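CORE FACILITY INTAKE
Project code: CF-77B
Contact: R.S. (postdoc)
Sample description: multi-component assembly, two entities in total
Requested service: structural model of the whole complex
Turnaround: standard
Below are the sequence entries exactly as provided by the requester. Do not edit them.
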Amino acid sequence: MDWEAQLKLQAYLDGELPEAERRRLEATLAQGGQSSLLLAELRQTREVLAGFEKGIQMPESLEFFWSKIEREIRRQESPARVPAPVSWAARLRRLLVPPAPWPCSPSPAS
Amino acid sequence: MTENNHSSADDPALVRAAQQGEMEAFEELVGRHRDKIFARAYSMMRNEEEAIDLSQEAWVKGWQRLRQFQGEASFGTWMTRIVINLCLDQIRRQKRHRTESIEELDEASGGVERQMPVVIVNPTSGLERAELRQRIDRALGQLSYEHRTVLVLHEFEEMEYKEIARTMDCSIGTVMSRLFYARRKLAALLADLKKQD
């Protein structure tokens, strides 16, 4: 099967093929063969994925999640914007990494 | 609107109340749709922390743009589009910082999907729902961002090819080719996972 035929098969599955081409393809599919097998595989993959997202749940409680959203909304709405809270990692970095030397500061030797 | 009213009100009523500045009404909307918004972010990013942060950002943006919501689509769909756009922005930022993956090279050079043998046996038959979910999760995680995004937008968001092309700023041909690759690769990965058992 050439590349174009494979993509047409997929478009057929997705309902994206124009009517005339759809009829032509159905006639080919009726003869079985490689295109029928490929169509079955594509269909199977689509069916496997159906409903996959339904079981995914937000790992944080509503109370905690909402408190973060509310805080951020209020922070962004306040006239004098309060800077975003600095993470612990960033604070630690500030403590551990010495500040860069002042570009114009004289060297100790001078 | 009282707290009791919030839980019994439908989405359009809650949206109207939130548009008037009632945060409690918006909180109720968050409670109703947060799993769906998180799930979409997680499907696209494959990282729990990133998905939490992006869904939080989406809800903040949702509140700020609430007056623009006219109700052409459902509130859930509107919020989903916000989180999808945030995920796409994040993916673009990350893409600028990483080198091309082997999969992208494959796609550019013609793609291995054309030669892949067809998976005839259902690789997921006889699996419990949780096990199946786990397997799909692992397989999705092995796709590149580009392929996974096209798959998510088509299969979960039910977008048409031209809509995906517009959203991802690429041609319809690219969408079709990426979707085809993603599906075939997923079928092969699921079959491999079954063989490993």
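Facility notes:
- Residues 103 and 144 of chain B are 7 Å apart (CA to CA).
- Chain B touches chain A through 46 residues (CB under 8 Å).
Invoice: internal transfer
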